[in-house]
């Protein structure tokens, strides 16, 4: 392009502009890189104490184990960016895991992609229900999804009862999904990374994606700017549900025995913690699914590292909680400091 | 869906006959007849072309005066003749809008012509902001008719208003703090490249071009969090420019701008006007209205009381039309000679909010803070009470400096604070009447660490009787009480602590007239008992009625002080809107 030949002409900036920009830039870069630094530090320290930690099989295990969390964190990120939250993802995941994996027993020879589609569809339906209540019913998402968390759990118990899907009913092509590797990297992790990358690209480069950020940044302003707020929020919840549904199918492939406790009791909170630790602002407006995925990776790594070091798993949750507090405190501290500094500066400039 | 509903009650003035604006006879109102005189009204909306014989259809009007040669003194008319000829770009007629029992606007009409800057002025609460929100598509009028380019239009939402060519720059910028300046300008309308993807480079280039057109150095890639209000305002203006709107509404755009920024904004407004757009300019600073507007509309109590060409009018005319009511007789009884200084505020400054504020309040004295909304009055009260921090200065209560900057230490020093927002800040709406009253005196009602419900009840019953609070039972939730009685509960809460200084912010907002008078008497009586009272009020009659001394604020500074005997609505309004300094010069 001819324009690239011309030297980049930046408008000369006033000193206040320049320094404040540098300040904000530094702040926002810190949020993205800080988490990677913590992750690297953790891996380094653990590897020094117990070199087995960085063996390829262990790394493979961590990547596979993290994949489902990172994938669901993508949907959760979209919801949180719009200043909402979805607590119901673990119930959606559990129900989808049982229903979709159960298909192998009921319909013989059903193609694996169809099972994924069914899981996706189940998730979409519940996500849409959440989205409708939040966007049209104007009920706070915390309340709506807390309710659906338990309602869907109830449905799950009703449907599953004492039954369970057992590994023997699953085709080998399905149960092999977590084990396939490409150049030593689990295929599953690559696929999830690609999906997360696509999600991040969508959020960054499409109008509807940017509008999610706008809604989370200033809901009232979004309304005034003519953004279809209700529709966007609805879409975010629906997609989040659909992704949790796919997560359920992956969960089934990974654990192969599916009863009412699929997903575990803490799944939603771990996903939300990953998102926040990964630099997504809990009140919306900023952050990316890539950060959220790194957050999930960090929490997964800590989990395995403590195991390898022979430390009680109690510390795992305590450390996750500590990281969460750190992320939120840092977020508040930075924005308060920044606001005060810029207010003073503009007061001096203005007069 | 029924734009003609409001027109039915108006006789004559067919809506489509745009070349002859309806005579706009002033609606019946209680004010003085001279304020909305038909003569003044017809001067603006009179026969077509009486100002410019060669007036053609609204289009790119020839520049009448070079924008660059702006006279330094703002008195000179900037725009020349008011182009009232032709069809108005936008015309709102007989609009009414109520929120529950509150009639925000009753009968609002305005005509905006291409090639004019039209001023809209009025006191706080006159209905200007509601009118803006109707034009922005945020509110739909209950009745009345809106014509855009002569055709009836219904604005279902902000997007519809944008499509109709209306851009609104709000008083409080509505930016997205986490997004970049360029994104804020083009949100929802970002330039696209192949595959409907946002073309970020082109977006930044266009934003940069807009900033260059506005003559500002702003980085389009900068996150908006932390931008000064002025820069935020610039981004809003750039957004309006990018919309290529034909009608630009500016709701008090200059409130937070410095002189240089205001001059730049006026150049932009003049450019827009010359390109044939209509600019609705809302400001409390009358000198600005005279500087850039060609016509003006005055609103009072939700009604249009004056719409006229600006030439020939004086600032006093506008102030009189804005105030336009009989002066209330003052409550002068029970004003005592003030005692010792209770509150001393010295050189108090919170940067960007208020600057260099010094004043005293003595025992038995009511000092009233007048000024426009946003002039910094409530912020000073919040700083004195320790809710907000301040950057410089000192607060002394009864000779002892108030340090620590927390409500607890202010309360310990004997300060009570009745906040502006009764429902959010003054009361706990779900708690009972007696619980609310006892809330600030719990330490005194404690028996062995527990709150005795009996002593709480006795305490509440005592104060309810003294303040004549009407309630069902003391255990009813306070939300069941009327607004006036709720306010008395808040007062009782603080009076129970026997404060030496009571700060009341908008003590009678949204209260009926009878209770209002009762609250005024109560404040007078408290002063008689030796309490120092600092009252903030946007209602001039209240300020004049209750205040022993009246301090007027404007843009974060104290600009005038009047003793009770020498104060008048006109004087206060002049000081609050910046007319005073101009006269003094």
Concise summary:
The complex is a heterodimer of chains A (351) and B (585). Chain A has 351 residues and is mainly α. Chain A has helices at 15-49, 56-81, 89-106, 112-135, 141-160, 172-175, 187-205, 207-217, 219-224, 229-255, 267-277, 289-309, 313-350, and strands spanning 181-182, 185-186.
User: What number is the mean pLDDT of chain B?
Assistant: 78
CATH class bucket of chain A: Mainly Alpha
What do the pLDDT scores of chain A average to? 84
Return Rg of chain A in Å. 22 Å
* CATH C-level class of the largest domain in chain B: Alpha Beta
N/C terminus separation of chain B: 53 Å
**Helix/strand/pairing class of chain A, anyone?**
mainly alpha
What about the largest sheet of chain B? 6 strands, mixed
Strand content of chain B: 15-25%
CATH H level of the largest domain in chain B: which superfamily? P-loop containing nucleotide triphosphate hydrolases
Strand percentage of chain A: under 5%
Sequence of strands across the biggest β-sheet of chain A: 1-2
Write the layout of secondary structure elements.
The complex is a heterodimer of chains A (351) and B (585).
Chain A: H1 15-49, H2 56-81, H3 89-106, H4 112-135, H5 141-160, H6 172-175, E1 181-182, E2 185-186, H7 187-205, H8 207-217, H9 219-224, H10 229-255, H11 267-277, H12 289-309, H13 313-350
Antiparallel strand pairs in A: 1-2
Helix pairs in contact in A: 1-12, 1-13, 2-7, 2-8, 2-10, 2-11, 2-12, 3-4, 3-5, 3-10, 4-10, 7-8, 8-10, 11-12, 11-13, 12-13
Chain B: H1 38-45, E1 90-99, E2 102-112, E3 116-122, H2 128-135, E4 143-148, E5 151-152, H3 158-163, E6 166-169, H4 181-186, E7 192-193, E8 197-198, H5 200-214, H6 229-242, E9 247-251, H7 259-274, E10 278-282, H8 286-292, E11 295-300, E12 303-309, H9 315-323, E13 341-350, E14 354-362, E15 366-371, H10 377-384, E16 392-397, E17 400-401, H11 407-412, E18 415-418, H12 422-426, H13 433-438, E19 446-447, E20 450-451, H14 453-466, H15 483-495, E21 501-505, H16 513-528, E22 532-536, H17 540-546, E23 549-554, E24 557-563, H18 569-577, H19 579-584
Parallel strand pairs in B: 3-10, 3-11, 6-9, 9-10, 15-22, 15-23, 18-21, 21-22
Antiparallel strand pairs in B: 1-2, 1-4, 4-5, 7-8, 11-12, 13-14, 13-16, 16-17, 19-20, 23-24
